[in-house]
Amino acid sequence: MNHAPNAVARLRDQREEEGIKPIQARGWRATRCRACRVIESHCLCAWRPQVETRSGVCLIMTGKEVFKPSNTGWLIADVVRDNHAFIWSRTEVDQQLLALLSDPQWQPYLVFPGEYVAPERVTHSVAVDQGRRPLFILLDATWTEARKIFRKSPYFDALPILSLLPEKLSRYQLRRSTRSEHLCTAEVAALCLDLAGDVEAASALDAYFDVFSQHYLDAKRQLEMDVSTPAHTELMAYLQPAVAVTA
Fold first, then answer.
1. Which regions span the lipid bilayer (predicted)?
2. How many domains does the chain have?
3. Which of 137, 186, 191, 231 could form a disulfide with 110 if both were Cys (CB 3.0 to 4.6 A apart)?
4. What residues have CB less than 8 Å from 93, skipping those under 6 apart?
C-alpha cells in the first residue's frame, strides 16, 4: 500500500540527497521496507491507521535520529495529518520552523518535564481554543540530547511547557533506557492527543505503536509475524475497510 510520505520520511530523504549516510548499526544489512523501516518480511505498511486530528505535531530531531529504524516519531507523523519535522542545530535556525511557531492558526506547546522550568510557564492541560489548534512540539531525541536542545533553543523560551503526568510506565522495548518512567516519543504524543480531545487518534497511535514494536522485535528475533494479537485487533478499527478485510 502506498502512502504519502510524512514529514520524517521527507526529512530522511532530504538528508540522503545531501549525501549524509546513516550510522551502520547492528542489523543494518537487513532489507527494510522503505516506507515503514521494518524488515520487509514484517512490513507495517498495511497497518497504518487512518484517523482525523485537530491537533498538529512538530518533531525536533537530531541528525542521526531521523535514520534510526526504531524511531517512533515516524509513527506519530503517520497518524497525525498535520505533521512537521526539523533537524535541530545549535548554530542555525530553520526559518520554516520559526514561521510555523508564529502561525496564528496554531497554539504551540513545548512538551517537556515541568521541573526544569519556571512554574509560571508550566501547564498540565491543553486549552480548547476554537480559534487556534494545539501544536505539540516534541523533542525527538535521547534524554541527554533533548535537554541540550531545550537549553540551547531560545526561540522556545516564550512557549508554554506542557508537562505530562503519565500514570503508567513506558512499554518501549526497542532501546534501553536507564529510567523506566521515561516514555518514548510516540507514547508522549498519544498522551498529548488525549489531552487535546483527539481521543480516537490517541488510541490509534497507542495501538499502532504496540503493533510496530511487535513487528520490529519479531523480525529481529526471526519469529513469524503474528497478526492475531490484541494490539492488531484494536488497530483494525482504525484501518481502511479494504485493508481490514485482507490483513
1. none
2. 1
3. 137
4. 155
